[in-house]
Amino acid sequence: MNSVPPEMVVFGGTDRMQALQRKLRVVAQANVPVLITGENGTGKEIMASMIHQHSFLSEGPFVKVSCPAIPGPLLESELFGYERGAFSGAYGTKPGRVEMAHGGSLFFDEIGEMEIGIQAKLLQLLQDGQFCRIGAQEDKKVEVRVICATNRDLEAEVAAGRFRQDLFYRINVMHIAVPALRNRAQDIPILTEYFLELCAQKFSVRPKSISADLMEMLQHYSWPGNIRQLENLMKRYAILGNEEAIMSELVSNGGNCFDPVVPSDGKISLKKVTRDAVRELERRIILKVLQTHNWNRKKAAKSMSISYRALLYKIQETGIVSSHVKGLEELEQAEAVLT
To answer: What is the pTM of this model?
Structure first.
């Protein structure tokens, strides 16, 4: 296998992701807060780490705060630290993570989970660069780059009163939106190669390359767990050494189009089943897109980033028959004559 750079685990090779990588490098140079949004498993933490690595604070620490993992009552002391005797059980002085991040970057993972009371104290840090340990009398000044990530729609959280509007504007100076894996399926081959290389080194195995048929199936899967799910799938494949290990997860999560009928003798052609599953999945996708666009095939083709001719072929290949399609053919022919 060819060596794949580590950043490929997030960026891959598509134009969209390469543009995102260029934006990230530019954003990293400016000492302003950054908000990274995207679904779970899309690589938001890796992007936060890369922003730190390419910033002028790269020699300083990168300190992570996992907002969902720390109970609300403990989060304040975890963030800002405390003085001896500040509360029952405070037998000594403890610096918080804000203080630990001085001269570096402070990463708030899933900031949408932060309780609104603590949001006010974080706002002060962003406004003044100052904070106060619990039980202390004086503020401390720190220099930190704040990077936040969330899988929530923070604007909706603001509207619902669960997230402070002023804090949202403070952390959203620069915005990085990470697309879901299903929206960048062209990157799956290079990501797959990367994960197989990691598995080969970590588990001392020599996994075979993924077959073309199974790769096509992977590129048509919805990936609810995104890159993290793909990584775990490749681990399973590398350790067990067969494509059926991957098929089992795709079948269990992919719906009826991944539910093959196995003969009583147990013999089944993986190649044929994979091909049929891909064709059925394509049929369902095309049908839904056509319905969304009122059976306008030109608009449907454009929305799926394929040519009009390719869509006509897919409609014929997958057996989509509808009076809407036939009627639309007559309309398109009439429009062609008029133009």
So the answer is: 0.71
